[in-house]
Task: structure prediction
Amino acid sequence: MQDKYDVIRLKNQLCFPLYAVSNLIIRKYKPLLDKLDLTYTQYIVMMVLWEKGRVNEKILCQTLSLKSNTMTPLLKKLEGKGYIEKAKDTGDGRNLVITLTQSGNDLRDKALSVPECISKELYISPEDAELLYRTLYKILDAEKEIENENSL
Amino acid sequence: MQDKYDVIRLKNQLCFPLYAVSNLIIRKYKPLLDKLDLTYTQYIVMMVLWEKGRVNEKILCQTLSLKSNTMTPLLKKLEGKGYIEKAKDTGDGRNLVITLTQSGNDLRDKALSVPECISKELYISPEDAELLYRTLYKILDAEKEIENENSL
DNA sequence: ACAAATTATATCGCACGCGATATAATTTAA
DNA sequence: TTAAATTATATCGCGTGCGATATAATTTGT
Result:
């Protein structure tokens, strides 16, 4: 039985399970990240810093697909917790350079157990996780490509 | 080269692309939903109502995996816009029954074009979309099952 | 050189999402 | 029956995300 309204049934939307699973995972992270005094978004910022050690805000925003209106207050909070330091780039005074403090760097080892805890709580096979990961990055990469074309 | 920190590299997390794609899609919905005077979350609530016509708040919360602290203010806004009406269940006074107004029901036809607009803006093949959809629902369904077991 | 355009960051206001908690209505149990 | 437990909704406070806009620093064009 075809109904013209079928297209706007919740069950026929890709967006909804994405939204629901994203919320679900962030919820699962919360108790683990509480121990590190981090929110989920602060955690992904810290992951970038743990990896690169030193990043400017623009790169951080691009990497995480966030804008300065989200990043600026978030960095202020991480600075307040003593995990990062901010400094103006001596070359270009517009750029803000973020670096890890000792305490921020120490947090890295405490975070090591987080991914395994999460994967235990997520009911998904390694194959499905791999599949999901790849498909999602296809979307993100395609989007980045379009953005780059538009900014030429 | 294996590094003990590999597990907390952003690129090795499933959560991040999920979060980024979910944000991306909601961002893409915004200009379309603005025309209907709906936010994304309000839109998925309306989808449930368009389908069922009449729902109580608890079912709505369960369907969308949201809690009353998100739903209550949201319903207040939809009521303010004249799209829904709230009434206490005559049987059990704790239950809040939500119904569509005429204006809320009329919105359904205006929303019909939304899914196609979104799918044009998402760079994903129908096969990948199907794959993504199925895998995400595996996670959601497994989660629901666990929740049900816990509430016995 | 210097005004205009561009770029990077910050601010503002709004709407979630969530844990914790409060309130109201119903059910349960002694 | 009536006090305690349970259930459904509401409130509170905080931290995002986001479009729009403002501010500060640099680059560009003439």
